[in-house]
Design goal:
By secondary structure, this protein is an alpha+beta fold. It is 37% helix and 19% strand. The strands form 3 sheets. Strands 1-2-3-4 form a 4-stranded antiparallel β-sheet, with helices on one face.
Length: 199
C-alpha cells in the first residue's frame, strides 16, 4: 500500500472522542453536586474519570489496530493484514437471506489477524486469485462492497495489454506471459516484396 494511493473507503475501528465520554459524565456529576450544595466527591470523581478514560483509550487503540478497514487503489487493509488488489479476483454476491444453505465463502477464513469476523461487522465474500475464498468485513459492508467492486474494475481496465514489441525478447522471439515462445510470422506483403527482389 503506497502512500500516494487515494483512500476509497475507510473505517477507523474506534474513535478517540469516546475517551472523553467518561470524564464528561464525571464532570456533569461534579457540577450537579456543586449546584445542589451536596457533599462534593472530588477525589472519587477525578479518580473515576481518569480510570474510565484510560480503559476506553486502550479499547480505542485496540479497535484502531485490529478492526479498522482501509481500501486504496492498490490494496485492502483489514486490521493488521494488507491484501493487494491484484490478489483478489472477484467480490462474491451477498448471501441470499431466504436461502437455508450457507454460501461456500461463509466458512472461509476472515481477513485480518482475528479468529473471525469482528463483532458488529458483516462479512463480504471474495474470491482470491489463487482460487481460494476469504471473508472481507466492514461495519458499512455495502459501502465496502461497492468501493471494492469499483476498484477491481478500475484495476482491470488500467492494466495495459503488452504489445508484440514489448513481449519480444532480445533474441527476437515473441513470448507469452507464461514464457512460451511464439514463432514470429512476418507480414505477407514484406515476404512478397522480398521474394520479388530476389528474382
Amino acid at each position: 500500500m503506497s502512500d500516494g494511493d487515494a483512500v476509497l473507503f475507510a473505517e477507523p475501528g474506534a474513535r478517540w472522542r469516546a475517551v472523553a465520554y467518561g470524564p464528561l459524565l464525571c464532570l456533569l456529576v461534579l457540577v450537579l453536586e456543586l449546584v445542589t450544595a451536596s457533599p462534593v466527591h472530588w477525589f472519587a470523581l477525578i479518580f473515576c474519570g481518569v480510570l474510565i478514560a484510560a480503559f476506553v483509550a486502550l479499547q480505542v487503540v485496540a479497535g484502531r489496530r485490529h478492526v479498522s478497514v482501509e481500501l486504496t487503489e492498490s490494496a485492502l487493509r483489514q486490521g493488521t493484514e494488507t491484501l493487494p488488489l491484484t490478489g483478489i479476483a472477484a467480490v462474491l454476491p451477498e448471501r441470499d437471506e431466504h436461502s437455508w444453505s450457507d454460501e461456500e465463502w461463509e466458512s472461509a477464513r476472515a481477513l485480518g489477524e482475528l479468529s473471525g469476523v469482528p463483532r458488529r461487522r458483516k462479512a463480504i465474500g471474495v474470491r482470491l486469485r489463487d482460487g481460494g475464498l476469504a471473508q472481507a468485513w466492514a461495519r458499512d459492508h455495502r459501502g465496502l462492497r461497492t468501493a471494492l467492486g469499483a476498484a477491481l474494475e478500475a484495476d482491470g481496465e488500467e492494466a495495459p495489454a503488452e504489445s508484440a514489441e514489448e513481449r519480444r525478447g532480445a533474441d527476437g522471439v515473441e513470448r507469452h506471459a507464461d514464457g512460451a515462445a511464439v514463432p514470429l510470422v512476418e507480414d505477407k506483403n514484406e515476404q512478397r516484396s522480398e521474394n520479388g527482389a530476389d528474382r
